[in-house]
Design goal:
Layout lengths: L1 H42 L2 H14 L1
């Protein structure tokens, strides 16, 4: 019975730890991604962005 019960007892802590790790990682990646996107958008030519925005608006 103990062997049956031990993994169940241990599982939630592992799941919570993994979820916390994933959430922290997602937050970090989101911040990095936003910073990279802002910098690349600032440095991009409008001549590169204009056809892309036209393509997006034609699809939508």
């Amino acid at each position: 019975m103990e062997g049956h019960y031990a993994p169940k007892k241990r599982a939630p802590k592992g799941i919570l730890f993994a979820r916390g790790c994933a959430f922290r990682c997602l937050l970090y990646m989101g911040n990095v991604w936003r910073r990279v996107m802002e910098e690349s958008l600032e440095s991009l030519n409008t001549s590169l962005l204009r056809p892309f925005s036209q393509l997006v608006s034609s699809i939508l």
